[in-house]
Amino acid sequence: MPLAVRIALACLLALAVLWLVVQLRARAHEARAEAAFPPQGRILDVNGHRVHALSMGSGPDIVLIHGASGNLRDMTYSLAPRLAEHYRVTVFDRPGLGHTDRINRTGATIRQQAELLSDAARQMGVENPIVLGHSYGGAVALAWAVHRPGHIAALVPLASPAKPWDSDLSLYYKVLSHRVLGPLVIPFLTAFVHDERVERAVASIFQPDPVPSGYIAHIGAPLTLRRDSLRANALQRASLLGQINALQPALDRLDLPIEIVHGSADTTVGLHIHAEPLARQLGAANLARLPGTGHMPHHANEDSVVAAIDRAARRAELHPAP
Asked: With b meaning 16 or more CB within 10 Å and e meaning fewer, what string describes 252-281?
């Protein structure tokens, strides 16, 4: 056998062994994450999809939808338990994140996610909810209002994208959403990136606000490093701008109470790009600007978020308990 052939075969064998090691290490990392952060609620079968849902409290219904790279634990840290004193709170993991299965392998659209969560809410007996969405989850909530107008009482976009923007997609999301590079790179991230690296990234999202005590231990950041979650999140983020563009003609048809909450120091989703033009466009929208608050107002300025929800409930005549 020629030397060049032997070298080529040796290289192929080495690559195969490396790929096997990476996949086994990734699988072990995922198993540790899921053991450390199991479902907090119950798993529903919704149109053949597994959806992780949690319900607490009693009163008017409110649905909380988390943002990119997250899971419902972001809402159960503080906001959901507080709201449960006066509302029946329903919280979901979005498709591909937390403990909810991916809808497809190409990236679930905000409409597909909204319709799945709407169906899940109905399955739980939630018929006329206030829908709050944070960040990417706010885009899903907006799609819910557009495509399921008969199944929403009021809308609360929280630090939410709503209008087109000019900035380019980051290299991180370009690589992870790429048809070839994504499936090649993602297993290495799952296998070798330490949970602490993800936790530091989570902390950076709060800037300039501090991270609440105990939040990092609660949020389940290692769940984000699972292969399916990294891929689903990247595909969703990469296609978001096009979906926001497509949603624009339908926004003028919105006819429900809308309470927008946005921090002035939010460098992830800009107040002037999204919340302010949306408030100007929609006569039913009220905008609460939070001076000096960053991208996580439901933690940094929870009182203002709860006040916005209460306003939405009163405007929708849902009458939360005093």
From this structure: eebebbbbbbbbeebebbbbebbbbebbee
